[in-house]
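Revision sheet: structure tokens.
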Amino acid sequence: SNLLATGGDDGTLTVWDLRQFSAKQETPAPPLARFSCHKTPITSVEWHPTDESMLAVSDSVGAYIYDLSVEEDTAPSQTDKVLVADIPPQLLFCHAGSKDFKELHWHPQISSCIMTTAFSGFSIFIPSNL
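Predicted:
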């Protein structure tokens, strides 16, 4: 794949299209997607082994699954309500059952299974909505 996902200490998850970079480029290529809903540093990022639009991410408070094929609904809303949290539509799942997540990985044979390590131990789970 030509996509690169990066996680920052500021909690920003950024997805880059490597085809947009060039040695002759004078200005930096814009990211394909940027998510800033995390409030703690990103500790791990991993692409799904078979679905190139899915991505697993962890920060110190949770493990998350993003699907980049989900498009944001741009239709105007009926009311202008202030949301409690700015959650992107690409965020499909959140697991917050451990303390101080450090790393996560997709299982190589069970495509929807994720394994995490944390200060409080390790977790193995299959999200119900995948």
